Amino acid sequence: MSFESSTGSALPDGETRTNLIINYLPQTLTDQEFYKIFVVVGPIKNCRIMKDLKQTGYSFGFGFVEYQKPEDAAKAILQLNNLPVQHKRIKVSYARPPGEDIKETNLYIQNIPRSYTLDQLEELFSSYGHIVQKNLLKDKVTGLPRGVGFVRFDKKSEAEAAISGMNGVTPEGGTEPLVVKVAEEHGKMKAAYYAGYHAGLNNTRGGGQDPSESAGW
């Protein structure tokens, strides 16, 4: 899923030439790894991966980087856009003010066979479109699969097709029909986008910091 971004040379009111949004981040990417990818281009004011910190710790799959200099932000787009990071290629572009609509592309799935791997989950849904993120939840105490997961598509139409095609279907190796619906995290994701975008505009912390050195990360 690609959130609010702009790659054009002319930026509408409210956009900045130093604040970037990075989409398609791997679920396992750490803040430190994220920082190290972008700091090689130039000094950074603010850098964060947006996550549901209050509950699941689940990464929303996007983050923000604000450079001190506009020329470094432009250079980062040229050098790092489409960069392979783990199993994905990241998208780097100028962040723009949050829109009112965030596409409902992330699906919440229940009754997934507990023997399923991430690859099997992707195979189950890949015929409906381009999957940009997937996750299987595990019990925090036992570490065992909960039979619950998320699949995020690139387009709303793909997610809708997956709901139509998979909701109520019992998959191979399963004993119960799948429950497939739009995830209820979009309010959180929207809040995360607002928080990340405005942190870039209003950041008052002087100088770039490695996330590991900041108590707030």
TrEMBL record:
Protein name per UniProt: Protein alan shepard
InterPro entries linked to this entry: Hud_Sxl_RNA, Nucleotide-bd_a/b_plait_sf, RBD_domain_sf, RRM_dom
Pfam families attached to this UniProt entry: RRM_1
Any single biological process term in GO: positive regulation of signal transduction
GO molecular function, one term: mRNA binding
Annotated Gene Ontology cellular component terms: cytoplasm; nucleus; ribonucleoprotein complex
Function comment: Has a role in the perception of gravity.
Subcellular location: Nucleus
Stored PANTHER family: RNA BINDING PROTEIN
Coarse class of the protein's main subcellular location: nucleus
Record's keyword terms, sorted: Nucleus, Repeat, RNA-binding
Domain RRM: 18-97, 105-185
Organism: Macrobrachium rosenbergii (Giant fresh water prawn)
Superkingdom classification of source: Eukaryota
